[in-house]
Amino acid sequence: MKYLLLIHLNEDEMAALPHEQMNDLNVRHLTLNDDLRQSGHFIEAEALQPGAQTSTLRVQNGKVTVMDGPFTETKELVAGFYLVEAKDQDEAVEIARRLPSLPHGWVEVRPCRQLEVD
């Protein structure tokens, strides 16, 4: 089963990290990617650009409006994701525990589902 691991981080706190610390974090993510490939769990992983480069679309009164930036009331934004293959939620959570960014924020583990059509 596929699981989406959404990494939520405070962009201001991450931007304040010294270059060496950010570089080490990135290296540890790339190493984890390789480990997950070898174990057969890896499908995809990406870091995302800062929220300021985000566009948010909403439908209001039947019209689509586009706003700059994320539409959120929290400081923690989705900073990246992993799409993994796991046998169950417990295994997906164990994979999420290994994410090097976890100590800097939080990770949401969501099972994917197939769309059903009659």
Question: Can you put this structure into words, describing what you see?
Answer:
The protein is built from three helices and six strands. It is α+β, with helices and mostly antiparallel strands and 118 residues long. It has a four-stranded antiparallel beta sheet with strand order 2-5-1-6. The protein has a two-stranded antiparallel sheet with strand order 3-4. It has helices at residues 11-15, 19-39, 89-97; strands at 2-10, 42-47, 55-60, 63-68, 76-85, 105-111. The mean pLDDT is 94.
Q: How big a fraction of the residues is strand?
A: 35-45%
CA(first)-CA(last) distance? 22 Å
Structural class: alpha+beta
Q: Share of helix among residues?
A: 25-40%
User: Helices and strands, in N-to-C order?
Assistant: EHHEEEEHE
Number of helices: 3
In angstroms, what is the radius of gyration?
Answer: 16 Å
Main sheet overview: 4 strands, antiparallel
Mean pLDDT over the full residue set = 94
For the biggest β-sheet, the strand order reads 2-5-1-6
What's the total number of strands?
A: 6
| Poorly predicted ranges | none
**Inertia-based shape:** flat
